[in-house]
Amino acid sequence: MKTKRLLIAGCLAAFIMPMSVLAGNVSAGKEKSAVCAACHGQTGQSVSPDFPNLGGQHADYLYRALLDYKAGHRKNPIMAAQVESLSKTDMADLAAYFAAQSGLSVKR
Questions:
Q1: Residue 23: which pLDDT band, with cuts at 50, 70 and 90?
Q2: More confident residue, 14 or 59
Q3: How far apart (Å, rounded) are the C-alpha atoms in residues 49 and 30?
Q4: Is the pLDDT of residue 108 over 90?
Q5: Quick check: is 1 in a domain?
Q6: What would the mean pLDDT of 52-75 be, rounded to a whole number?
Q7: Domain limits at 49?
Q8: pTM beyond 0.70, yes or no
Q9: Residue 56 located in a structural domain
Q10: What is the DSSP string of the chain?
Q11: Predicted pLDDT of residue 102
């Protein structure tokens, strides 16, 4: 019975463990974000309504979005090409960088 409980607890912990455990490096993310700036702005505040603001979003959300673009669960040809060569570490770093930025919106 004790073994069964430990097994269930272990499975649940692995399943619901927050993605923030894969904490990204903000400094590394800043270096990697140069390509992103063309559409999303240097600090994640887009100057065009065609592209979403990334600054101030939750890192877990941004990381999941990047994973979903790479896996094809989110459909966008521009983003699919951008994430094609990114590793999970790259995505975690980018998510950490943009999450650390101000979420204040800019006038468009």
A1: confident
A2: 59
A3: 23
A4: no
A5: no
A6: 97
A7: 22-99
A8: yes
A9: yes
A10: -HHHHHHHHHHHHHHH--GGGSPPPHHHHHHHTHHHHHHH-TTS--SSTTS---TTS-HHHHHHHHHHHHHTSS--HHHHHHHTT--HHHHHHHHHHHHTS-------
A11: 87
Q: Where residue 74 sits, what CATH number does that domain have? A: 1.10.760.10
- Side chain identity at residue 16, one-letter code: I
CA gap 46, 108 in Å, rounded: 9
Number of domains in the chain: 1
- Angstrom distance (rounded) from CA 21 to CA 60: 10
pLDDT tens, 9-21? Answer: 555 554 444 444 4
Spatial separation of the C-alpha atoms in residues 43 and 46, rounded to whole Å:
8
23: which residues sit within 8 A by CB, 6+ positions away? 59, 92, 96
Is the residue at 105 inside a domain?
no
CB count in 10 Å sphere of residue 96:
22
Say what the alpha-carbon torsion angle 56, 58, 60, 65 is, to the nearest 10 degrees.
-70
